[in-house]
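SEQUENCE-TO-STRUCTURE ENTRY
===========================
What this section holds: a protein sequence and its matching fold, both as plain text.
Tokens: labelled as protein backbone structure tokens, with as many entries as the chain has residues.
Question of interest: how does this chain fold, as expressed in backbone structure tokens?
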Amino acid sequence: MLKNRVGRALALGVLLCIAWANRPSANEEFPFGRELLLDTLPMKGSKRIPGIEIDADGIAAIDLWCNTMQGRAVVSADAITISTGEKTARSCAPERTQADDDLAAALTQVTHWRWEGDSLVMNGPKELRFRLHTN
């Protein structure tokens, strides 16, 4: 009788371990409502790093190298589509203005996303790698 109980307890323990190991990790879900920073260094003479935050309802707040913009995002499984609105009209150095335009264009061309370690990678013609903002 004791062997049966021990055997059942071990079997239950093994099943719980398997279920725990196969649970979805937080990194498999899209991080709605979390600020994502582009995985890059700031441009010379600035501390600013571009970022994006996408709410569950699809509203996207996008910080570029100099300006900001609002957008919409549709996330379904591993697919993502981002559309952007007008940029703010801050006066910027020409290289930052060009970097803003390049990043906005790259965001509108992403089609898929995935977690790669601690980085959220958005794929399109140009791969964009983001990390969760931790402050």
